[in-house]
Design goal:
- The chain has about 250 residues and is mainly beta.
- Helix content is about 0%, strand content about 40%.
- The chain has a single domain, classed as Single-stranded right-handed beta-helix, Pectin lyase-like (Pectate Lyase C-like, 3 Solenoid).
- It has no helices and 26 strands.
- Strands 1, 3, 6, 8, 9, 11, 12, 14, 16, 18, 19, 21, 22 and 24 form a 14-stranded parallel beta sheet that branches.
- About 45% of the residues are buried.
Length: about 250
C-alpha cells in the first residue's frame, strides 16, 4: 500500500504486507535481494486507525510502516494499531520508520517481534513528532532518533511508552536498549525522551546524547499475557499515573 492522497483514513483493516517490491542490495546479515516494501504514508493528514499490520512470509519481511519516505506527511497519525512480525535484515528493518514530516503522531499502538530493527526510527528529518502511549516488545531497540548532514531533527517528543525485552542488534554491536541517539549532523533542539518505562532491556535506557531526558525508569509493566501479545497492563501501586490498563487495539 502506498497512500499518496491527503487526509485519507484507513480504519479497522487487517493488512498482510508481504510482497516482493523492494529490491535491496544484500549487504548485511540476512539481507536478501528482494523483500517487502513497507506500507508508505506520503500524504498530509493521513490516518491509520485500528489497523493490524504484519508480514506473514518470513523470507520476504522488510520494513513495516514508512512515514515520509517521500511526500510531505505532515500531521499524519498512526494510532490504536498492532504492528508486528516484520524485518529480517539486521539493523535495517523497523516496525515504524518515521523519516520525515512535521507534527506526526504515533500513539496507542502495540508493536512486537522485530529483532532486526527498532520499534520506531525517527531519522533523518522528522520535526515536532509526538510518539506516546505505545508498547514495543521484542525489537532490537525501542527507538532511534538522529539525523545526517543537511537535515534538522527538532521538537520531537517520545514519552509514556513501555519498551520491553529488547534483543539488541549484534551486527552493529548495539545491546538491547530503549533508545539510541544517533546524530550525524548538528543535533536539533527540543528533542525529548521522558516518562517512559523499560523492562528487561539488557542495554538499559541507552544513549541519550543530544536529548532532554527525565522521568524514565525500569519496572515490570505486568502485562496481562505477553506470550499471547496482550500488552494491557495490570494495575500498579506507586507508578506514574499513565501506566494503566490499555484496551487492546487492532481491527
Amino acid at each position: 500500500m502506498d497512500i499518496e492522497a491527503s487526509y485519507t483514513t484507513f480504519t479497522r483493516v487487517r493488512i498482510d504486507g508481504s510482497n516482493t517490491l523492494y529490491p535491496r542490495h544484500p549487504d548485511g546479515v540476512n539481507c536478501p535481494g528482494h523483500v517487502s516494501q513497507g506500507l508508505v504514508i506520503a500524504g498530509p493528514g493521513d490516518i491509520l486507525d485500528h489497523i493490524d499490520y504484519f508480514q506473514s512470509i518470513p523470507q520476504l519481511r522488510g520494513n513495516g510502516i514508512g512515514i515520509g519516505w517521500r511526500g510531505h506527511p505532515d500531521h499524519a497519525i498512526v494510532r490504536y494499531s498492532t504492528i508486528h512480525d516484520i524485518g529480517q535484515c539486521m539493523a535495517y528493518d523497523h516496525l515504524v520508520y518515521l523519516a520525515g514530516g512535521n507534527s506526526v503522531q504515533i500513539y496507542g499502538n502495540w508493536m512486537w517481534n522485530d529483532a532486526h530493527g527498532r520499534g520506531v526510527q525517527l531519522y533523518p528529518g522528522p520535526t515536532n513528532a509526538k510518539v506516546f502511549d505505545n508498547v514495543i516488545d521484542h525489537a532490537g531497540e525501542g527507538f532511534v532518533i538522529g539525523n545526517e548532514a543537511g537535515y534538522t531533527v527538532s521538537g520531537n517528543q517520545i514519552f509514556h511508552n513501555v519498551i520491553s525485552n529488547c534483543t539488541g542488534l549484534p551486527w552493529e554491536g548495539i545491546p538491547g536498549q530503549a533508545i539510541h541517539a544517533l546524530f550525524g549532523g548538528t543535533p536539533g533542539t527540543g528533542n525529548s525522551f521522558h516518562d517512559n518505562v523499560t523492562y528487561r532491556d539488557p542495554g538499559g535506557i541507552g544513549s541519550l546524547s543530544g536529548l532532554e531526558s527525565y522521568g524514565n525508569f525500569t519496572v515490570n509493566p505486568r502485562y496481562i499475557d505477553a506470550s499471547r501479545h496482550n500488552f494491557a497492563t495490570r494495575s500498579h501501586t506507586g507508578l506514574v499515573h499513565w501506566l494503566h490498563p490499555i484496551r487492546p487495539p487492532g481491527p
